[in-house]
Amino acid sequence: MSHDLHESLRDNVRILGDSLGRTIADDLGPGFVARIETIRGLAKRGRSGEQAGQQELIDYLRRLPEKDLLPVTRAFNQFLNLANIAEQHYRARFRRVEDYKPGVQPVLGELLERARNEGHSPRKLVETLANMRVELVLTAHPTEVIRRTLIQKYDAIDDCLTAIESSSEYPERATRARGRLEELISQAWHTDEIRHDRPTPVDEAKWGFAVIENSLWQAVPDFHRDLDNLLLDAAGERLPLDAAPIRYASWMGGDRDGNPNVTAKVTREVLLLGRWMAADLYLRDLEQLKTELSMWNTNSAMRAEVGNVAEPYRELLKRLVARVEATRDWAKAQLDGRSFEGGPIIETRDQLYAPLLACYRSLCDVGLDTIANGVLLDTLRRVAVFGVTLTKLDLRQEAGRHAQVMEELTHDLNLGNYREWSEEQRQAFLLNELESSRPLIPRRWECSAETRETLDTFRVVAAEYGEALGTYIISMAGQPSDVLTVALLMKEVGGRVGMPIAPLFETLDDLNRAGDVIDRLLALPGYRQLAGDRQEVMIGYSDSAKDAGQLAAAWAQYRAQEALVDVCERNGVNLTLFHGRGGTVGRGGGPSHAAILSQPPGSVNGSLRVTEQGEMIRFKFGQPDIALRSMEIYTCAVLEASLLPPPRPKPEWREEMDRLADTAHKAYVGVVRQDPDFVPYFRAVTPEGALGRLPLGSRPTKRRQDGGVETLRAIPWIFAWTQIRLMLPAWLGTGEAFANRIEEPGGLDVIQQMRDQWPFFGTYLDMLEMLLAKADVEIAAYYEHRLVDEPSLEALGERLRERFRRLHKVVLDVLEQDELLEKTPLIRQAIEVRNPYIDPLHGLQAELLQRNRDADGAISADLSRALMVTMAGIAAGLRNTG
């Protein structure tokens, strides 16, 4: 691709920008639009390297009347969102959901051909895809800054762009589409972009269900149909009817770690909402099938089922519709707290699947394969993927909450103090109680409110809402007893261990000990009887990077996976790794294809779970065409990692990474943990203090409301640094590691060898390069100039920026490039196009932060809203914000 934006993308940006300009002119007058253009022109001058242009922009922004601050921020925020729509539209049209270097676009058909050339039989390809189990876990982490009502308008704007592009021979259609586009942009401009209330966990779950209804419901059967066609060409057969290589799970309404708003009552409500929504969606499918399957010819099995009726398929579907309607009514009654007196409901996937399968087999048996493989096959595929609950709901809770239950329990039963016991004592006690037939928890136990809530959660598990529950994840897990405690609580409350249990290893120390912990756990006969031959382990990216720095964390995650693969192989256990990735580099983000192929060989063996969160859900799955491509990317990556795994790192590379990670970790800790000026600097220069007022998600920004940076969650930690464009969490420490090694003889050669031959290291460099391109130390310096007035903090800021400049130079040396993103021009152009619209928001945000601090947080409602809009606009402009 040329260095210019693709013509269609450029045209659509212009169409949307012109329409926004007309809308603003109608509302605020042409003079205001001229003011916006002046600001944009100054920002472009500043970006061209003119120091005077940068200062003129700042001076102009500071002279703006107070009444103009909110509409100015809104104008730039709206343009950035419209630019994102144009780019999403472009990506969907040209199948560029993710960004790759030339020659590495993942295409499933090409990969199947390559696998055959590598000696894999057609049968092997079908079996691998049929047995593949990739679960994409939708999470509500608070990085989605755009209101759902605006997202719906933006989707409609995208439809208008499609209509305009496809109506070149029908000018009247284009005119209608442009009129509708103008209307939608006006609607968006006159809609408040900032939520006034923080969403509840149930609101977040409804948003997740809406993604399924509006996008995935169509994309899933389309994906399977495309996959079927590819397999017919490559292997001569279709994917088995019940195969579901890509499935969906959710944390929305189940992730209670640090979120007091997620209660047992909320989890129950979300589970019931999933049942209601699934029944409602299937009813739409069944009504269409009832209309279309009017045939009379059927096989003997169908005749035996429905009798000698004129329209056997309609008869069977009518019965199924009645049960699904009853299911929907039952779920609604449960949600309303009413009793249900209707007929039998659908409780399992098979109860829905079997009648549809009977119709399919009958049609095939009588030679009506074309009809069988039409909309009926689409519904069968949906049932295979979504079941009767749409997603499986994971539950997550922090290990300390479970330990608190055991501490209170052992104290009240005069058994001692659980927290003071050794790990061996805890294991012995827990295993003994798991085998005991007598109850441990007294029937009318008077416990604390927190413990009662924890036990109520296990009562939801015990209620067994069909097939709705996924995995129970233990955050901050560190010992086998953390897993055994959850198993015991499940058994005590529900009589059995009703969910798979996955420890989440997050900190650097926990990652380093992950293999040993799982080895000791699997060595316990009592546990193996419960868990069988499957074990899921979650790898934490956010907290490990916040704890240790990005480079040290990435290497610890890699080594932890290697150790876990080895342990599970030795114990004869099938391992599923669950990657807790976020949208940013600092949280394990980046193109999914490259990320999966950079994992250790053997760690992706047809099985993978990964979080998709916040705004990345919308970017990857918010529209059917993009969702379709995203599923293909995941399938490609997991198939390639399973059949054509990456090479194992050479021993000398491992030694290099040990040295690099150690140097980077010491440098990172030396600043974040040991410099007394760091926390004051962070709080002074970033909008961290104001961030808590931005109602992004249901979860508080801190695990605890007291304490320092260590209590801040990884998402707001990264979000705050992103807002000022320093991006510190993703690079601090890496510059020292690379620079020190390059200064040694042969250092640059070995790093470049790792870059070219080791996918893990090459992918890390790609992500670092993108991060550095989005960062801007001059913008960070302006925040400091405006908000920091202590010499020691200013000195720290200058040292941080100098570290960044040093890393920038070193990365260019390693990549052998004159500028960043030379090989991925689309990303570079997207950043350059957005900068003149983001820069004014930075200037305004720094000004508003200072005014807010001067007024001790008591600025006017309009200025407070303007501050929130700057955060939303900067996040939209940089896209992967948290």
TrEMBL record:
<keyword id="KW-0456">Lyase</keyword>
<protein>
    <recommendedName>
        <fullName>Phosphoenolpyruvate carboxylase</fullName>
        <ecNumber>4.1.1.31</ecNumber>
    </recommendedName>
</protein>
<comment type="function">
    <text>Forms oxaloacetate, a four-carbon dicarboxylic acid source for the tricarboxylic acid cycle.</text>
</comment>
<keyword id="KW-0460">Magnesium</keyword>
<comment type="subunit">
    <text>Homotetramer.</text>
</comment>
<comment type="similarity">
    <text>Belongs to the PEPCase type 1 family.</text>
</comment>
<dbReference type="GO" id="GO:0000287">
    <property type="term" value="F:magnesium ion binding"/>
</dbReference>
<keyword id="KW-0670">Pyruvate</keyword>
<keyword id="KW-0120">Carbon dioxide fixation</keyword>
<feature type="active site">
    <location>
        <position position="141"/>
    </location>
</feature>
<dbReference type="GO" id="GO:0006107">
    <property type="term" value="P:oxaloacetate metabolic process"/>
</dbReference>
<dbReference type="InterPro" id="IPR022805">
    <property type="entry name" value="PEP_COase_bac/pln-type"/>
</dbReference>
<dbReference type="GO" id="GO:0008964">
    <property type="term" value="F:phosphoenolpyruvate carboxylase activity"/>
</dbReference>
<dbReference type="InterPro" id="IPR021135">
    <property type="entry name" value="PEP_COase"/>
</dbReference>
<dbReference type="InterPro" id="IPR018129">
    <property type="entry name" value="PEP_COase_Lys_AS"/>
</dbReference>
<dbReference type="InterPro" id="IPR015813">
    <property type="entry name" value="Pyrv/PenolPyrv_kinase-like_dom"/>
</dbReference>
<dbReference type="InterPro" id="IPR033129">
    <property type="entry name" value="PEPCASE_His_AS"/>
</dbReference>
<feature type="active site">
    <location>
        <position position="546"/>
    </location>
</feature>
<dbReference type="GO" id="GO:0006099">
    <property type="term" value="P:tricarboxylic acid cycle"/>
</dbReference>
<dbReference type="GO" id="GO:0005829">
    <property type="term" value="C:cytosol"/>
</dbReference>
<dbReference type="GO" id="GO:0015977">
    <property type="term" value="P:carbon fixation"/>
</dbReference>
<dbReference type="Pfam" id="PF00311">
    <property type="entry name" value="PEPcase"/>
</dbReference>
